[in-house]
Amino acid sequence: MQQNTNLLLQGNTLTRDAENKCMDNGTAIESGGVEVSFSQNVQLLNNTIQTVNAPQNEAGDGEAIMSQQSNTQNVLDAGSVTAITSTTVTDSEALWGPVTASRISQFPEVIAILTGSGTGEWRQIVGLNTNTKTLAINQPWSPVPEVGSLYSVFVWTLMHANIQGNTLNDNPNGIVLYDGCYDCTVQNNLLSNSRQIILRTIDQPLNQNVYPEGRRVHEVAIDNTIINNNVSNTTGQRPAYIALDTEAFSANGYKGMGMFNVQLGQNTINPYSTDPNQTYPNPTQTEITQEGYFPCFLYGPAAVKDPLTTVFQHIQFWNNSQTSKVAYRDAFLPLTTRRCVSARLSLK
What distance in Å separates the CA atoms of residue 139 and residue 88, rounded to the nearest whole number? Predict the structure, then answer.
């Protein structure tokens, strides 16, 4: 269901039979429920999505609802502004050439500002001069970012989405918005033994065979809301959690904003109360293995990382509850901090 516009999926019951196979152990290809990657104006309302015969350790696939960059070869690049006007951005160090130019004409590429006074601003790219390494944008910056501002070029994985009132049962993963999202609302969903609700962004090197003119990918999430959801673990098979997760895999460090203006409120997590110290299998070493809230989860091997208050900006976290106390392991304590949280703004 990729690349949809004005999609309404409402009142359906979808059942996936995992056949006791999974991608993690090599017995199955990646599979899951509803994927809405590269879509906009999406409504997923009052659906029931469930999995039967899922292996206990399945964690790397089986998402009930998801979006991701997938294998769409848009530009994906990040760098530093060397010159700027109200309607152009120049990076004299950029590697942009004919491949980048062709993808900009093919995909709805955008540029987002990661640092400085323009942090959180983004614009549609409408042209590229490969000689001067200058991008043209669809409307003026306000304010105009400073020279030296970090930026990212990408395609929004999901825009203007409302994921509401869905019931998810026994899925290896629940609602997973990989690779950024703009103006996405996740509200009034009931997840039972379906792991998590997670909004994730990532900074990592690019595959030069696929992106010969790129340097790295730096994804962002802007203007998102996660409210009034209930996430439960009644079997002790999968942790129940809600996370804002930024992953820093670029070898040269993580710099700049990852999430901007995200509201997370009035959610309830029902952990597996029998054992509050329980951790869960982590076959790929990239999964959250404990239950609870992770409002500022900055993870990854990058040796240098900007402070959480730079990576997460305008994060509102309020009236979230947890029915059982969870004893976080020492390794998780730095990843559960709420030091990124700012004063609450009005709901969209």
Answer: 9
